Amino acid sequence: MSKTVKGFSKFSKEEKINWLASNFFRSEKEGKKVLSQYLNQDEELQQLHDEFIENTVSNFYVPYAIAPNFLINGKAYTIPMAIEESSVVAAASLSAKFWSERGGFSARVISMTKVGQVHFMYSGDKEDLIRYFEEVKPELIRGTDDITENMRKRGGGIVDVVLRNKTEKLDNYYQLHVTFETGDSMGANFINSCLESIARTFERDDIEIVMSILSNYVPECRVYAEVSCPIENFASERPEFFAQKFVQAVAIADAEPYRAVTHNKGIMNGIDAVILATGNDFRAVAAGAHAYASCNGTYKSLTQARVEDGKFVFSIEIPLSLGTVGGLTKLHPLARLSLEILQNPTAEELMQIVAVAGLAQNFAAIRALTTTGIQQGHMKMHLKNILNQLEANLHEKELITKSFQGKTVSHSAVAEALHKIRTGH
Ligand code: MEV
């Protein structure tokens, strides 16, 4: 038995699985069965997935669901979501319906500029460096012409290259801060290729490059989305009280980082689910969103709420670097379908849809938190997971689901109910 291995990537898939099975699985047979159950029987499709990454031994499923009835800028959208957490899709759907009856969501992209940086060390005279940079700058951009040709045809490319002196933060540290427009692609490969080309010119002139890489912090690739309605349009007995409490809940997230992190996590439930479903990079977006939430030095809410002249206004402003071409967007068959469901949006439209998904999610969470509490809805959805954990059969599931209607669900209460059914008392 050996927990380390040499040349694993060269093993065939079967050899990889055998190595795992003999080293880690409680039951070799059972473990192999589970891995192969999740492999696609369509060999071509499986190969596509195998080739997304290295050392693939199976697929890891996440439910793929639909939240219908979103009205965004007057247009109806059906939003695909890939997520494992109970109640996220239900919450999105509820919010969508609620706001579609109150004028829907409005959204607009503020800007779409992305950033990449060439980080380098220079210990010589600063003025010499500035002069060298000014001289070489046109050449830096020209040197990327073959890489940027197609992007330029689509209206994108390098926006600017700026030399930044960072020596106050770190001795001898400078950077080339490069801004890009990447059209409908997220543009990671494009940006990194441009940066490496730019860096080569510097290296040629004996400047020590440390690294060249895009930044996932994209405050200038930002979108705004909003819902609003007269307070009396809230279907609550005390609409003013509801609106006020809602505004307070968002203000608390703005004032208290412990709350803000959970508040924003709820927003990312909606955002990540759409990003994953459309084959975009949710880690990049999450990193950028959380950095933006703390851009003033304290981690704050990504959403804002206010009551103004009897009107409730709830909004989100968030950086989102997304693509509707390139990457996995057209390669992953489900991502492609997601984009079809979204009516083949541009990157700009997708930014708006994703921001709305986050706002909708946050609305549902805050509404539940400030009224019934979160557990009622959450545990109702989670009931199915508990029943599966307890290996309930179909008949038992039906009986228990019925008996818990309108009641608080907990693991122990469900286990007790199941025990009663099974033992007859
Ligand atoms: C759970 O995944 C998300 C919430 O905690 C978000 C929130 O508290 O606002 C419900």
Quick recap of the structure?
With about 425 residues, this protein is α+β, with helices and mostly antiparallel strands. Helix content is about 50%, strand content about 20%.
What does this entry look like structurally?
This protein folds into four domains: 43 residues, no CATH class; 157 residues, 3-hydroxy-3-methylglutaryl-coenzyme A Reductase, Chain A, domain 2; 101 residues, Hydroxymethylglutaryl-CoA reductase, class I/II, NAD/NADP-binding domain (Alpha-Beta Plaits); 47 residues. Strand 1 and strand 2 form a beta hairpin. The longest helix has 24 residues. The strands form two sheets. Strands 3, 4, 5, 6, 7, 8 and 9 form a seven-stranded antiparallel β-sheet that branches. The protein has a two-stranded antiparallel sheet with strand order 1-2. Helix 9 runs antiparallel to helix 10. Helix content is 49%, strand content 20%. By secondary structure, it is α+β, with helices and mostly antiparallel strands. The mean pLDDT is 95. The radius of gyration is 26 Å and the shape is globular. It is built from 15 helices and nine strands. The two termini are 48 Å apart. The structure holds (R)-mevalonate. The site of (R)-mevalonate has 9 residues, from helix 9 and helix 12.
